[in-house]
Amino acid sequence: MRVLAAMSGGVDSAVAAARAVDAGHDVTGVHLALSRAGGTLRAGSRGCCTIEDAMDARRAADRLGIPFYVWDFSERFRDDVIEDFIAEYSAGRTPNPCMRCNEKIKFAAVLEKALDLGFDAVCTGHYAVVRDGASGGLELHRASDAAKDQSYVLGVLTEAQLAHTMFPLGNTPTKALVRAEAEARGLTVAQKPDSHDICFIPDGDTRGWLADRVGTRTGEIVDRAGAVVGSHEGAHAFTVGQRRGLSLGVPAADGKPRFVLEVRPITNTVVVGPKDALAIAEIAGSRFTWAGRAPQESVFTCHVQIRAHADPVPARAAVSSEMVTVVPDVALDGVAPGQTAVLYEGTRVLGQFTIDTTRSAVPVPA
């Protein structure tokens, strides 16, 4: 097959490309340029998609003896990921930009261009497994290495996309083996640190980054009963579950810490309350997709995962043509609208939805 290897400049994508070559595929490497701003060399493990990463990807491709190109997707990334991130925060939601990047860039724009150019599949260094389903069709499953499993952020993929996707690392037991393999292959990225944080906010200061783009506007911080307990300089700077940085002027009656329970962008209000009020008994969303064949029943049992590294929770899901509603067996902690809920059946990813609404397990006091 003609395979396009998406090479981020890290060890995982380099080894994935090498394995595709070993499998006898006609492999071409490509690095995605996602920003037109002049980059700087990265120190440590913050961010990704820098000039340093592009150079590392090229060196890896040279070592493997495969053609290498850089594709400019900066405009698509700006429109589909960065602007979406700003809009979601401005609307009081907490987005996951990695999910949007996988959905809109890596497995939509890149895959579409690859197919147009005659490639059969896109290969990446993600830790996940694509396999044939027992009843036909393709399925997305968790990786062998639970610590590195990335099936959550791949939950946005559809069966049509899975048909043209390769994850050569999915059945590798540990990341240490991947690094050892890279060392043995003479790849200079063998010991390169993993990237962390949001790639377009490499210093990790999300609040400051948003303030520069959205501006500041003084608003009220209120408790669940509506009493004003503090003020803020912009509701977009807060997210559900946040404790630090609230600067409340009125202490809680019980003296315990308070957490952000809700962000109301229309009134520029932040609602705070006790930790137990973060317990969520139900989540629902209208923007959903299925990673393979859709569930045959409108109501079914599953596991729900609400963060990339959260534990899956047993749940019951109800699906209509317009909405997915999930009731977990045990209350979820600190769920914010805008987060992604991924549904599993064992190791299999069933699908995902963006959380629009939540229902607290703790009633608002009268």
UniProtKB/TrEMBL annotation:
Catalysis: reaction(s): S-sulfanyl-L-cysteinyl-[protein] + uridine(34) in tRNA + AH2 + ATP = 2-thiouridine(34) in tRNA + L-cysteinyl-[protein] + A + AMP + diphosphate + H(+)
Binding site for ATP: 6-13, 32, 125
UniProt keyword annotation of Methyltransferase present: yes
Segments forming domain tRNA-specific 2-thiouridylase MnmA-like central: 209-273
GO cellular component, one term: cytoplasm
Top-level class of the enzyme under EC nomenclature: transferase
Pfam families membership: tRNA_Me_trans, tRNA_Me_trans_C, tRNA_Me_trans_M
SUPFAM superfamilies, alphabetized: Adenine nucleotide alpha hydrolases-like
Record carries keyword Ubl conjugation: no
GO BP annotations listed: methylation; tRNA wobble position uridine thiolation
Highest taxon listed in the record's lineage: Bacteria
Protein name per the record: tRNA-specific 2-thiouridylase MnmA
Lineage, opening ranks: Bacteria, Bacillati, Actinomycetota, Actinomycetes, Micrococcales
Gene designation per UniProt: mnmA
